[in-house]
Specification:
The chain has about 850 residues and is an alpha+beta fold. It has an 8-stranded mixed sheet. Helix 7 crosses helix 8, helix 8 crosses helix 9 and helix 19 packs antiparallel against helix 20.
Length: about 850
């Protein structure tokens, strides 16, 4: 048995036998700047009651040196994941001395040495189960405790945790910081960060409540922090959630830190929220990027209540925090910040993630059956986040805003600092709304799959709304007409849809939107007249949300093979240049590029790619100077030019400073453009070295690694392949760079020879590497073959492979099959 992979049943038995009270964690990080030092001393003292004589603690690290139970040393019995405890009394104090391992994978205590100034930065990331890489603990969400962190570090460092520092003792070049005990929280949301981070302070006040705010980033990125805007959004969010939830922010302070080589977008550690540095732009940034950052800030803030204050009992009910936070991030953005169009981007992009995930053979209900931690790790997906949020939006349309928020208030009041399941929320919502929510839960939370809606004529000439996988929908149908160069809504009908076929009394219209205002979760098809209207006049639709729904419908139909991919790209070429909503434009550009590479028929791909590259270049030249659109088209040019070198001379000119008026070619865009030239053979190692000398930062070195691996040479791609699988020193970001370089430009002629080796390696890499690193290898290097033979062989020959690994392979197999069907390689 893999003892690191905890199961739901055994953790439930443990929490039934153990009542946890307090944990004290002492970390010695003074040696972190020494690169040769791989580990750090960690001492954990746990206080708990027990009704059993034995149990175990979770710990993954380099060494367990001492285990003391109620003042008596025990023999160390540790299998690399679990520390056995024996001779327990009714009340116990257990002390564990160990050596933890610094991480380069973003799991546990991650250590980053910044090449820009040679400074060292540390931060923790645990969800779902990596706090055991830093401390000995009960690694399950239903065993909450008060945590006291004590950290030794170099004296000039900022040291942060969930709470404020209670006192600091200074020594010669070192300091010991002891933090105030936390309120009861789960192990996976405890946090520590340490290093010479730049700090910007702020404050939020409401009546008698005063919360100190902090924003942190490593020194070399301090010029790009935009702290004022981040603090503004933070205050707006605290205002909104304080009113919406009627439960004061409970965690004392609100620090937010941007950290390098981060595996997630962000993490909701109470009092110390961590964010990827990708939310900071080293130069130009579009309004869509800032909107995405604001949405994430508010998403994580919602977790202070949904997830931190009230926590799911086990990972089955992950939706109780992630679905709610995803919904609240968009809702709060729309009503509390300047980013009022948050639901537009949600409709076009966030829900696309959900639709894609929900059509995989591995889809699952929002309330999932999560048997173990490996399954939990893979459940942070489009169902749990985006579908859950979309379903909550449907719920709000069903019960109303007032009932929804009152139900949330009662839920927090009844369960503060506790753990819950689905029923705990539904009880409160049913009581407030006066509706039995069991049918709604069964239809939306406890089943999987996405309905598709379209209209057709029945035998009597009446319009009928048809849906697959019938569910109850509250939706609106918008009727639009073309008027004087505009497409405007003439009328809107609201109705409840329950069965497979619903007769409609609809007048004719140039454009019929079946889910106008995006109330429900369903793929809505356009009828042929509406599609012709869209082809001619999509950019003339005035309402951004309506355009978002049209773009979404087109993309879903393309993915499903019902709309020819070349026809979709032609619509983008025609109407993309006039798309005024930058969030929509960003997604549309990405989808067009993806459609050409994956859905256009093989014989047509080169011509379609050339037409697209030309269109991107021409639109860039015509874009308004300094506009977000100009920057977006420039980024699209870099993406397109990795697959088609028609404009390599112009790309080189952009790097040499011959740029359209207003365009900011920042370091990240420079790397994108240069890597495109490298991929097509129009730049070399000397160019890469010169660019790295210009941008010798952490991001620059990662980009240089990606560029070197992208050279169109079989030996270079083999080196990237070998490095990805075998170089255990690679950080998570550097591993991604090798993988992206290996696949650069879609050059199957350079990499097809590795297809069989992929299937030979994945079982062992899953066994030997952490799940984060193994997942990146399994997904990133899955071969884009022209048949399903090899993947089907592996699935047939490995029925006993770990379920989480099989899930990843099955999902990749399904996506490959979809692409082959849409391209006509396989029958539909």
């Amino acid at each position: 048995m893999d003892t690191a992979n905890l199961t739901r049943e055994e953790t439930a038995a443990r929490s039934a036998a153990v009542t946890l009270h307090r944990i004290r964690v002492e970390l010695d990080l003074t040696g972190a700047p020494e690169r040769a030092r791989t580990g750090f001393p960690t001492v954990t003292t746990l206080e708990f009651d027990a009704t059993a004589k034995t149990t175990w603690l979770d710990f993954i690290g380099e060494e367990v040196r001492r285990v003391e139970v109620n003042g008596v040393d025990q023999d160390v019995v540790w299998d690399g994941a679990r520390i056995s405890l024996a001779g327990l009394a009714a009340s116990n104090v257990v002390r564990v001395e160990a050596i933890g391992a610094y991480s380069r994978s973003g799991e546990g205590l991650h250590r980053f040495h910044d090449p820009a100034d040679d400074e060292t930065y540390l931060y923790t990331q645990y969800e779902p189960a990596d706090s055991r890489r830093v401390m000995a603990c009960f690694e399950q969400p239903d065993m909450k405790a008060e945590y006291t962190f004590v950290v030794d570090s170099p004296s000039e460092w900022e040291v942060l945790s969930n709470q404020t520092a209670a006192h600091t003792d200074l020594g010669v070049g070192v300091q010991r910081v002891e933090f105030t005990p936390t309120l009861p929280i789960s192990s996976y949301i405890t946090a520590v960060a340490a290093g010479p981070y730049t700090r910007v302070d702020g404050e939020w006040r409401r009546d008698e409540q005063q919360i100190s705010l902090g924003v942190f980033v490593r020194r070399s990125l301090a010029p790009y922090l935009e702290a004022d805007e981040i603090l503004d959004v933070t205050r707006q969010g605290l205002d909104f959630f304080t009113d919406a939830f009627a439960y004061p922010y409970p965690w004392g302070k609100y620090d937010q830190i941007f950290v390098p080589e981060y595996n997630l977008g962000a993490m909701e550690n109470p009092g110390l929220v961590t964010f990827t540095e990708s939310y900071l732009s080293r130069g130009a940034a579009t309004e869509a990027q800032r909107a995405a950052r604001a949405n994430t800030i508010l998403h994580e803030m919602a977790h202070m209540w949904f997830g931190d204050l009230v926590t799911m009992t086990w990972w089955d009910d992950l939706w109780l925090k992630e679905s709610f936070a995803d919904y609240m991030g968009a809702h709060a953005s729309a009503v509390a910040t300047r980013f009022h169009d948050a639901w537009v981007k949600f409709a076009a992009s966030r829900k696309a993630w959900a639709y894609q995930q929900d059509q995989l053979p591995t889809t699952h209900p929002i309330v999932a059956d999560i048997t173990d931690l490996e399954a939990a790790k893979l459940n942070f997906d489009g169902i749990t986040y985006a579908k859950g949020a979309a379903v909550l939006k449907q719920l709000v349309a069903f019960v109303g805003d007032d009932a929804f928020f009152e139900g949330a208030r009662r839920y927090f009041a009844a369960n503060a600092f506790g753990n819950t399941t689905l029923d705990d929320f539904l009880v409160q919502l049913s009581a407030v709304s006066g509706r039995d929510m069991s049918d709604w839960s069964a239809a939306w939370l406890q089943t999987s799959g996405v309905s598709t809606l379209w209209t057709e004529m029945d035998d009597e000439g009446r319009v009928v709304l048809v849906q697959t996988d019938p569910r109850p929908h509250r939706l609106r149908i918008g009727l639009y007409e073309r008027q004087d160069g505009r497409v405007v809504r003439r009328e809107q009908r609201e109705l409840d849809v329950i069965g497979e076929r619903t007769p409609l009394d609809l007048p004719e219209a140039d454009l019929v939107l079946l889910n106008d205002d995006d109330l429900t979760y369903a793929k809505a098809r356009l009828d042929e007249r509406s599609l012709r209207t869209v082809e001619a006049s999509l950019s003339e639709i005035e309402e951004p949300l309506a355009r978002a729904l049209v773009w979404s419908s087109l993309w879903n139909a393309t993915r499903d093979g019902e709309l020819d991919a070349a026809r979709y790209v032609a619509i983008v070429r025609r109407h993309g240049p006039a798309e005024s909503n930058i969030g929509l434009l960003t997604g549309v550009l990405a989808n067009a590029a993806y459609a050409i590479r994956h859905f256009v028929a093989d014989d047509d791909r080169a011509a379609e790619q050339r037409s697209w590259t030309d269109a991107v270049w021409n639109t860039l030249q015509a874009a308004d100077a300094g506009s977000d659109a100009q920057l977006s088209w420039a980024r699209a040019l870099a993406t397109a030019s990795a697959y088609d070198d028609a404009h390599h001379e112009q790309v080189r000119a952009l790097l040499d400073g011959d740029v359209p008026t207003g365009l900011v070619v920042d370091p990240d865009l420079r790397w994108q453009l240069l890597t495109a030239l490298v991929t097509t053979g129009h730049a070399d190692l000397a160019d890469i070295s010169a660019e790295q000398e210009r941008d010798d930062t952490g991001s620059g070195r990662t980009a240089a690694r990606r560029a070197r691996a992208s050279r169109p040479d079989a030996a270079v791609r083999r080196e990237a392949w070998d490095s990805a699988w075998n170089d255990l020193s690679l950080s998570n970001d550097h591993l991604d760079a090798e993988i992206e370089g290996f696949r650069a430009g879609g050059r199957r002629d350079l990499i097809a020879g590795f297809d069989a080796a992929y299937f030979d390696r994945i079982a062992s890499v899953w066994e030997d590497r952490s799940i984060e690193i193994a997942r990146r290898l399994v997904l990133g290097l899955f071969p884009a073959t022209e048949s399903l033979q090899q993947v089907d062989w592996w699935l047939a020959e490995n029925p006993e492979a770990p379920a989480a690994l099989r899930r990843l392979v099955v999902e990749q197999r399904d996506q490959l099959a979809r692409e082959l069907r849409v391209r006509g390689v396989l029958p539909r």
